[in-house]
Specification:
The complex is a heterotrimer of chains A (318), B (579) and C (77). With 318 residues, chain A is mainly alpha-helical. Chain A has helices at residues 8-17, 23-33, 39-49, 54-63, 70-79, 85-98, 104-109, 116-127, 135-141, 147-160, 166-172, 178-187, 198-204, 210-223, 229-235, 241-253, 260-266, 272-285, 291-297, 303-317. With 579 residues, chain B is α+β, with helices and mostly antiparallel strands. Among the domains of chain B are: 245-346, Succinate dehydrogenase/fumarate reductase flavoprotein, catalytic domain (Flavocytochrome C3, Chain A, domain 1), CATH 3.90.700; 428-551, Fumarate reductase/succinate dehydrogenase flavoprotein-like, C-terminal domain (Methane Monooxygenase Hydroxylase, Chain G, domain 1, Up-down Bundle), CATH 1.20.58. In chain B, 36% of the residues lie in helices and 15% in strands. In chain B, strands 1, 2, 5, 6, 7, 8 and 15 form a 7-stranded mixed β-sheet that branches. In chain B, strands 14-9-16-17 form a 4-stranded antiparallel β-sheet. In chain B, strand 7 and strand 8 form a beta hairpin. Chain C has one domain: Alpha-Beta Plaits. Helix content of chain C is 13%, strand content 16%. Chain C contains 2 helices and 4 strands, in the order βαββαβ. In chain C, the strands form 2 sheets. In chain C, strands 1-4 form a two-stranded antiparallel sheet. The longest helix of chain C has 5 residues, at 27-31. The chains are: A mainly alpha (318), B alpha+beta (579), C alpha+beta (77). Chain A binds chain B through residues 1, 3-5, 35, 37, 66, 97, 99, 128, 130, 155, 158-159, 161, 183, 185-190, 210-211, 219, 222, 240, 242, 245, 271-273, 280, 283, 298-304, 306-308, 310-312, and chain B through 7, 9, 39, 108, 114-118, 125-126, 139, 146, 149-150, 154-157, 186, 263, 265, 272-276, 278, 305, 307, 309-310, 569-572, 574, 577-578.
């Protein structure tokens, strides 16, 4: 009884089909080669990457996700420059999905490829590998002409938690593209209190795009930087409730007593999610001065707000 | 002994069900002892079978250091499940939760991480912090399949297990399966068996009337529940149904756990939130049902207040994970989250420990009451399991089964038992005409809706039992004209077994508990004096359903009375609060 | 009890021009959890044989040529 759909007995037939004259048959063979984990299967896929038919090449690139080995990663990196966009995309996604640390030096060596697509793809594949040797190429890529490349480079440096990259990241915090600024706000989550880079996050609270401001507020909450408290209190006046909501959470996490008036004020917001976040933050701060206001909010029409306010009031009492 | 069309296979560990918990059980058994013959039997194809066929959009019950402790989790589930829990099993899950997340991560399952690569755990309400989104969680099955291949675990697709085999000394000795495309038999002699066949999700009939438009993957029809029952294993708390809030007609999750962190919420027709309960539970479903009954229904998922960019982000997640066809459903209706609230409804009933608490009884070692038989995932009795619970408990079952297999020998196949089972399986193929599996299934499930849905009424459930008995007689007229129809014919027998068990279990517990899940009109109060216990159901030697009470094991995490009522104290209805 | 035939629309549609079943592809038939897809007698195309669809979409997502479309069953639409 065959325990897998593609057992060794079938491999000979599969190898013949992988070399068939009909491109459609070769393409189907590539799909099936994903399920046969052996060096012979990988060799057939390598040949498939050089097939004349682009659909065969794309199928081979996708099937290689199932086959480990740095020599295969090298072939996929080469395929990032394939003439066919479908093949390039397949190779990029496969390289990212493989998460193969052995491939890091190869990716680093190709991070200055000719096309923006290939540069972004190599950096994206490098991010989760968190290979320290990737820092220099990522820092260099922060000045790339393509915003997609700069964003991926920011991602690599965040995962590396590389303090030497902070001066460069403070520059991308002022990038002219919002996606790069937002990525930078997220990447700065690893900084510690009193870091000069905190200024970049605080400045991010005044960004012209609300999503960048929201990301900055969220990161300040996660990183818990006390020097950001005044700016976060100011952010409680932001035009976007999403920013106010994240600022409230950050202030709660920081235990910022100075924020009591702003948070108590937010208990009267028209946005119920914000009232709930403000009540939760007041519960985290647990200052008796908020007790009376929370008792009023405990009669809010929204049950989520009521429950959170009651919980918070109990925190302020004890 | 062998007859035409019957193959034999020996295994140390046989896993039945290749969805979520099953593959993990096989992986862990093989890792524990690479010399073991581990065989995974799957009714469909392991590549895309089970509840997470298209992946999952997040973990609802991640116990991650720094965000929640195992003790806190055990306490919350104890409260959410009205105290009826086997805490040692909850604790085993909670303690294994973080290691499993990291293991899955190492296998390339994608969890949401922040800008520096830490898990982006979300706080959804003020109780615990357990939500870890998986915006790119659609590769779960690919990852599991890859690992099965790398470990060279034997996978047998398109075989449906029909009955478990027991040795003369009572321990499990294997299973009988039938090919869903050829009707050939496979007899697997095994030292241990792990069942992971998922929920009994094809029990109630969805309100659309479409038999396969169920909340659960429609392949999950209670085969494991029925097999365990026929093998004499005990099943626990079956009256604690699964009922879920879903997108109306589409009948899939919306899903509040995805939209919640972005600010989306469930609202009534006035656009106001009404759910008081924090945790997905029978209490929450009672509040949902009451709102539907009141003048404030229908109930909606509201995202109209969110920024268009945020809604786009949510759509990317909802339309590429778990149930991606919900995007196509909304497209067809012309509904857009940005402009209109999405109408919600409640699902048909089922058995699913993943969301509630009923299933084949297992202890903290994933052991059933039959020696050598293990169960994990939606079919086993560990409450509020979800996907991560299926993985953790599957892993526990795999490791335990690997050591059990080292201590026992294969048992001989009981030829009479095998012959009788083959005759049962093939009976519908010997008829030229009669009743089709489709119509028998429709009628059974329509009666489940008519008579077993809560609010549960004693007189109605008794009628259900009479009608189910009539259908059981009709089975002798069922016809199957090809192997595919035989598959459905076998499934409808599992469904009927589950329907009988649902009725019997609901009648046995003469109180109301778990909110809407076991809301008995004739016994509206919770009776802690008599029913603060598990209810166990099994099949006796004569084929009759038997029941007993099982005392709750001493709590490993004490929960005092004031904590048990913590939810109630925070639940202040608007009218009362406004005084 | 003689049996009647009962016609119904099917939710899963296969574009014959794109389907490469003739080249040996069986992906959609392989992955369907409910085993409702099949290859027609000529061996040239996949089709939905049984109206027992959970509209779960592996057949569409895994089809290498984009030939498969999963529609929502009419009763739910």
């Amino acid at each position: 009884m065959a325990l897998f759909d593609t057992e060794e007995a079938d491999f000979a037939d599969l190898a013949i089909r992988a070399r068939d004259d009909d491109a459609g048959i070769r393409r189907v063979a590539m799909l099936e080669l994903a399920e046969t984990v052996s060096p012979e299967a990988a060799d057939l896929l390598l040949a498939g990457l050089r097939d004349a038919d682009e659909q065969v090449r794309a199928a081979a690139a996708r099937a290689l996700e199932e086959h480990p080995g740095a020599y295969l990663a090298a072939a996929l990196i080469a395929a990032l420059d394939d003439a066919s966009p479908a093949v390039r995309q397949a190779a990029a996604e496969t390289l990212e999905a493989r998460r193969e640390i052995e491939a890091a030096p190869l990716l680093i060596a190709r991070a200055a490829s000719a096309t923006g697509f290939a540069r972004a793809a190599t950096l994206r594949a490098l991010r989760e590998l968190a290979a320290p040797d990737a820092a220099p190429v990522a820092i260099a890529a922060l000045g790339d002409e393509s915003a997609a490349v700069r964003r991926e480079a920011v991602g690599v440096l965040g995962w590396l938690r590389d303090e030497t990259a902070l001066p460069a990241l403070m520059r991308t915090a002022r990038d002219d593209q919002a996606e790069v600024r937002r990525a930078t706000m997220a990447a700065l989550v690893f900084i510690r209190p009193a870091s000069p880079a905190a200024a970049a996050l605080i400045e991010g609270l005044s960004d012209r795009e609300w999503q960048v401001r929201e990301e900055a507020a969220a990161t300040l909450g996660r990183a818990a930087l006390p020097e950001a408290i005044p700016a976060l209190i100011a952010a409680m006046e932001d035009a976007a409730w999403q920013v106010r909501l994240k600022a409230a959470g950050a202030l709660g996490r920081l235990g910022a007593r100075a924020a009591l008036p702003a948070l108590i004020g937010a208990l009267e917001s028209e946005v119920s999610n914000l009232r709930k976040a403000a009540a939760a933050a007041l519960g985290d701060i647990a200052d008796p001065a908020a007790y009376a206001a929370l008792l009023i909010t405990a009669r809010d029409p929204d049950p989520e707000v009521r429950k959170t306010a009651l919980w918070a009031a109990s925190k302020c009492q004890s | 002994m062998s007859q035409p069309g019957t193959e034999y296979l020996d295994a140390d560990v046989l896993v039945i069900g290749g969805g979520t918990g099953g593959p993990m059980a096989a992986i862990r058994a093989k890792e524990a002892n690479p010399n073991l013959r581990v065989v995974l039997l799957e009714k469909a194809n392991v590549k895309r079978s089970g509840a997470v066929s298209m992946g999952m959009d997040g973990l609802n019950n991640a116990v991650i250091p720094g965000y929640a402790t195992p003790e806190q989790y055990v306490k919350e589930i104890t409260i959410a499940n009205d105290g009826i829990v086997h805490q040692p099993a909850l604790m085993a899950y909670a303690q294994g939760s973080y290691d499993m997340i990291r293991f899955l991560d190492s296998l390339d399952v994608k969890f949401e991480k922040d800008g520096a690569g830490d898990y982006a755990v979300r706080k959804v309400h003020h109780m615990g912090t357990y939500v870890l989104p998986m915006p790119q969680g659609h590769h779960v099955k690919k990852v599991l399949y890859r690992q099965l291949r790398r470990l060279r675990i034997g996978v047998i697709n398109r075989y449906m297990a029909t009955r478990l085999m027991r040795a003369a000394d009572g321990r499990i000795s294997g299973a009988i399966g039938v090919n869903t495309r050829t009707s050939e038999f496979l007899v697997v002699r095994a030292k241990t068996v792990i069942m992971a066949t998922g929920a009994a999700g094809r029990l109630g009939l969805p309100s659309s009337g479409y038999l396969f438009g169920t909340y659960e993957n429609a392949a999950n029809c209670g085969d494991g529940h029925a097999m365990a029952y026929h093998a004499g294993a005990e099943l626990a708390n079956l009256e604690c149904y699964q009922i879920n809030p879903l997108i109306k007609d589409y009948n899939g999750p919306a899903c509040a756990y995805v939209t919640g962190p972005f600010g989306g919420y469930t609202a009534n027709n006035k656009g106001q939130r009404f759910i008081e309960c924090d945790y997905w539970s029978g209490q929450m479903m009672l509040e949902f049902w009451r709102e539907l009954q009141s003048g404030n229904g229908p109930v909606f998922l509201n995202m109209t207040h969110l920024a268009p960019e945020t809604v786009s982000e949510i759509e990317t997640i909802l339309h590429s994970n778990e149930r991606p066809s919900r995007g196509r459903f909304h497209e067809g209706r012309g509904t857009n989250y940005r402009e209109r609230m999405i109408e919600m409804h409640i699902s048909e009933i089922g058995f699913c420990a993943g969301h509630s608490a009923s299933g084949v009884w297992v202890n903290e070692f994933a052991e059933t009451t039959v020696p050598g038989l293990y169960a994990a995932g939606d079919m086993a009795s560990v409450p509020h399991n979800y996907m991560l619970g299926a993985f953790v408990n599957g892993a526990i079952a795999g490791a335990r089964a690997a050591s059990f297999a080292a201590e026992v020998d294969l048992a001989e196949v009981d030829a009479d038992f095998l012959a009788a089972e083959q005759a049962r399986v093939l009976a519908p193929t010997l008829r030229e005409d009669g009743l089709t599996p489709h119509e028998i299934e429709y009628k059974t499930r329509r009666l489940v809706n008519d008579y077993l849905n809560p609010p549960k009424v004693t007189a109605k459930m008794r009628i259900a039992q009479e009608r189910f008995a009539e259908i059981r007689e009709d089975l002798s007229h069922m016809v199957a004209r090809d192997p595919h129809e035989l598959l459905r014919a076998l499934e409808v027998q599992s469904i009927l077994d589950c329907a009988d068990m649902a009725a019997a279990a609901s009648l046995y517990r003469t109180e109301s508990r778990w909110g809407f899940y076991h809301f008995r009109v004739d016994h509206p109060e919770t009776d802690n004096e008599n029913w603060q216990c598990h209810t166990m159901l099994w099949r006796d030697q004569d084929g009759a359903i038997r029941h007993r009470k099982r005392p709750i094991a001493p709590y490993v995490v004490p929960v005092d009375a004031s904590e048990m009522t913590a939810y109630q104290r925070l639940r202040i209805p608007a009218a009362q609060a406004a005084e | 009890m003689p049996l009647a035939n009962h016609d119904t629309s099917v939710p899963v549609i296969v574009d014959d021009a794109k389907c490469i079943a003739a080249k040996g592809c069986r992906v959609c038939v392989d992955v369907c959890p409910l085993d409702v897809l099949a290859i027609d007698v000529t061996g040239s195309r996949a089709y939905m044989k049984y109206d027992e669809c959970w509209y779960c979409m592996p057949c569409e997502a895994d089809c290498p040529t984009g030939a498969v479309t999963v529609n929502i069953p009419y009763l739910l639409r």
